[in-house]
Design a protein that fits this description.
Blueprint: H1 3-11, E1 39-43, H2 48-59, E2 64-69, H3 75-83, E3 88-92, H4 98-112, E4 117-120, H5 135-163, E5 168-172, H6 187-207, E6 213-219, H7 228-232, H8 236-243, H9 256-263, E7 274-277
Parallel strand pairs: 1-2, 1-4, 2-3, 4-5, 5-6, 6-7
Helix pairs in contact: 2-9, 4-5, 5-6
Length: 284
Amino acid sequence: MSPSALDSAASGDAPVADNYPSTLPQPGHNWQITLKDKVIAITGANQGIGLGLAEVCLANGAGKVFSLDISQPGDDFAALAKQNPGRLEYVQTDVTDEASVKAAIDEVAARGGRFDGMIANAGATKHQPALDFTLEQFERLYQLNVTGAWLCATYAARKFIELKTKGSVVFTASMTSYRPNRAAPSAPYGGTKAAVRNMAHTLAMEWAQYGIRVNSISPGFVKTALTYYVETSPDWDLKMKYYGGMPRLALPQELGGAYVYLLSDTATYTTGIDIPIAGIVGAW
């Protein structure tokens, strides 16, 4: 579509829900991939993948990044906050509790002065044979990984609609949503991430009329405190030799570019997709 045609289309009425912004880019739209001035909430960002994503969002111009986490921030969070004065903040949140999630998102919008993006990242894993799982362990994984993601996405969407913001929701799924992880199997964990990935597709369909985009990222192995055992496995080198792929785990920050793209205004027509980021995909 030519610029003049784009301007003409953007100035007209679009078939979206009444009283909400057109889903089309407006004249003068900034096509640079940037999060300039945007306010982003990331669940579970006090450490690990979430903190790495916060670092990349800040490096790409986010006005403020809020970590919604149940635990208190540690030294790594404090160091990143010191490097970005007034731009990285913490809101204590239990993502499995509806009232806590609603209050946290209200606080993000109030403290940030706006609200543009939600990364539903908080989650947990437990790797053991399926027959060794107790019902309590199974239900805990689903409560945190699925219910928590659902609450954060739906309350973010409600806030976007309230503010008439064309917001973006990005779920952290997993390569285990596609196939088993042979190095560390977990049927319940893979099931939760498959649920999250499917949820992203369906919510994207439902919320497109509001200009809200919903996508997911499926990481492979990422170097965090939860994956220390992977590289210490006695057959790790053998797996790399015969299965190929990048012979290392990803740094959390290496995932960040995809999240930044999906949160940015450059991705105004990108919704309902999953982006796999798994440099060692052949080892799975």
